[in-house]
Specification:
The protein is elongated. The termini are far apart. It contains 11 helices and 12 strands. By secondary structure, the protein is an alpha/beta fold. It has helices spanning 11-20, 27-37, 51-59, 156-170, 193-205, 222-229, 246-252, 261-270, 293-303, 328-340, 365-368; strands spanning 68-74, 80-85, 91-98, 126-129, 133-135, 150-153, 179-183, 214-218, 236-240, 279-285, 308-314, 345-347. Bound molecules: S-adenosyl-L-homocysteine. The site of S-adenosyl-L-homocysteine has 17 residues, from strand 8 and strand 10.
């Protein structure tokens, strides 16, 4: 991260920037509002500042650092996949899902509430799926991002910047517009914990998206689950479970060798839930691999006594992924077993599958070598 980019700076960093530039202290607030609320693209656009001060910032090399929208893919279901680029040539994907992602509906949280909202635009809430790293080191066998390998962490500014770029492109503004965030894009947020948490604080305090409208998903970096529980400002927690015994989970998610199911579930049980809060467990269903009725019974057993819900995701297929998507009846049967055992279970409908925007499909189209083929339906 470079120290002349405004996006990603917190209050203290803005204050020292202004002090070094010889401006009065209140310029810090003006700068923060311009960057995080007005979401300007350049210092030149900050019309609340005197021309003189803008010029002195510019001559010191200060820039906003809003990332570039390089490409936009629009799905038949309204989902938009953004390819967002950074000055070093790396890029990530950020997904806009009008009307939410289906995973939050009916769960009693702020993220899922009914709203008068933005009906004129055809949605009353929208969810942005945010990336935390370029590529990923975790190597889950069913995930396309894993095929990229680990490239680098995103800075806090690059994480917040994805949100600002999409809000700007969609011409929406929280908190008036109901925007939910899911940190479920490319990368493992808990392997980039400090930058990720700094971004969360800026998104809550400056961009004004409530923490109750944010969910972070981890593949299971157990020590960071304990850390998250101690944060004064924190998103809701989701954990990618994906298997119900260690042998299978290690095969699907090699990190299970380091943090096995017992350690993972102990962390989930110790996690300090707030009022009305649940831990969400994600379970990607792979045909003939982890979708047997027996697996559903094992999952219910593992999760017994936890205040949680399960989001079932039928595999989103992709090139290089050697698993199959189970039939709808298999998914429904799995859900039924969980529910009958008293575990709230929801089936996530895939969003933007035709543009490779669905879970696990985020991968630079340029690296696939071709634009995805639109699929029927
Ligand atoms: N690294 C984090 C967040 C990104 S993945 C994590 O692992 O939780 C977000 C969710 O998508 C995870 O629950 C993951 O298990 C799921 N996922 C990955 N690949 C998928 C695929 N091909 N089909 C369906 N879901 C997938």
């Amino acid at each position: 991260m470079s120290d002349n980019l405004l996006l990603g700076m917190d209050r203290a960093e803005f204050a020292s920037l202004v002090e070094n530039a010889g401006g009065p202290a209140y310029r810090a607030r003006q700068l923060m509002d311009a960057v995080y609320r007005a979401r300007v693209e350049s210092v030149e656009q900050i019309s609340t500042l005197p021309q003189q001060f803008r010029m002195s910032l510019q001559s010191a090399g200060v820039m906003v650092g809003l990332p570039q929208i390089e490409k936009k893919f629009v799905s038949q279901d309204g989902t938009i996949r953004y390819l967002i680029g950074f000055p070093d040539g790396q890029s990530v994907e950020t997904v806009w899902m009008p009307q939410g992602d289906g995973g939050e509906a009916g769960d009693g949280s702020a993220a899922g509430d009914a709203a008068a909202g933005n009906a004129a635009r055809g949605w009353d809430r929208a969810t942005i799926c945010v990336s935390s790293q370029v590529g990923c080191a975790v190597d889950c066998q069913f995930c396309l991002t894993a095929l990229l390998g680990a490239k680098r962490n995103l800075s806090a500014g690059e994480i917040v910047g994805q949100v600002c770029a999409v809000l700007r492109d969609q011409n929406v503004a929280p908190p008036q517009d109901r925007i939910n965030l899911v940190f479920m894009g490319m990368g493992e947020p808990f392997l980039n914990y400090d930058n990720f948490m700094k971004a969360v604080r800026l998104l809550v305090e400056e961009v004004r998206i409530a923490e109750s409208r944010m969910t972070v998903s981890t593949a299971g970096i157990v020590p960071r689950i304990y850390d998250l529980g101690r944060e004064p400002i924190r998103p809701k927690l989701a954990i990618s479970l994906n298997a119900t015994n260690d042998e299978l989970r290690t095969r699907l998610m090699p990190l299970n060798r380091k943090w096995n199911l017992e350690m993972l579930l102990a962390a989930a049980k110790a996690y300090p839930l707030r009022n009305r809060e649940y831990v969400t467990f994600e379970y990607v269903l792979l045909g003939g691999v982890n979708d047997e009725p027996e697996n559903a019974r094992e999952a219910a057993e593992l999760l017994r006594g936890l205040r949680c819900k399960v989001n079932l995701i039928a595999l989103n297929p992709g090139p290089g992924i050697d698993f199959t998507t189970p039939a709808e009846e298999r998914v429904a049967a799995f859900q039924k077993i969980l529910r009958e055992a008293g575990v709230p279970a929801f089936v996530r409908r895939p969003r933007g599958r035709d543009i490779y925007a669905a879970c696990g499909q985020l991968k630079r189209t340029v690296e696939i070598g071709a634009a995805p083929e639109p699929q029927p339906r």
